[in-house]
Amino acid sequence: MDLGKRIVKLRESKNWNQRELARRVNLNVSVMNRIESGERPARDHELVAIANALDVTTDQLLGREEKNKTVTDMAEFEEFLNDPKISKLYSEYKESSEERREALLAAWEYLKSLDKK
């Protein structure tokens, strides 16, 4: 997948139109259109601005490093993070002592081992 297609895919995953992304990176819409269509290469500073706006690295944007998660996976992950039970568990884990964290992880491993039996 080329740069323009990756930009379009990421932009659409945020439900942004081309005008919105162009506004966020301070580019003329026609310039953004030419970058997305592959008619014009993005300059370094534009690439950085686009990556920042889309919340990815420039390597991801250039295809050097594929995103670990698809858009669907990211939506599922956001749903997971917004679960009140998960939020409570994470909050309490984060505030616990190292000893408690280790005990919690040991209990979790024990529970997982029961599933294997």
Automatic annotation (TrEMBL):
SMART domains: HTH_XRE. GO terms for molecular function: DNA binding; DNA-binding transcription factor activity. The keyword Nucleotide-binding does not apply. InterPro entries: Cro/C1-type_HTH (IPR001387), Lambda_DNA-bd_dom_sf (IPR010982), TransReg_Diox_bact_type (IPR050807). It holds the Pfam family HTH_3. The keyword DNA-binding applies. Signal peptide: none annotated. Residues 7-61 form the HTH cro/C1-type domain. This is XRE family transcriptional regulator. It comes from Planococcus halotolerans.
